[in-house]
Amino acid sequence: xxxxxxxxxxxxxxxxxxxxxxxxxxxxxxxxxxxxxxxxxxxxxxxxxxxxxxxxxxxxxxxxxxxxxxxxxxxxxxxxxxxxxxxxxxxxxxxxxxxxxxxxxxxx
Length: 108
Fold this sequence. Notes:
By secondary structure, the chain is mostly helical. The chain has two helices and no strands. Helix 1 runs antiparallel to helix 2 (about 65-105). The longest helix is centred in the first third of the chain and has 51 residues, at about 10-60.
């Protein structure tokens, strides 16, 4: 008995490969988003640790130049956190875009 050959099998195969590619892209975007969130958590932990360190030093004598250094560092970390929030928003947008492409590939 002759084997049945689907006429559009090459098209179907191409669509499956496209779907797999979209899944990989979506997974990569999710991974990137998690990495960016972890970076923000690192900055927040650093900020919390710095606040704790400053509180400990306030119980002791602290010179004005040290206080200025702490304030400058607080400012830098706050800016990094705000910048990281923007990076996370962009990564979330990218994830959503990849999810929509994957959804469309699955529908096709």
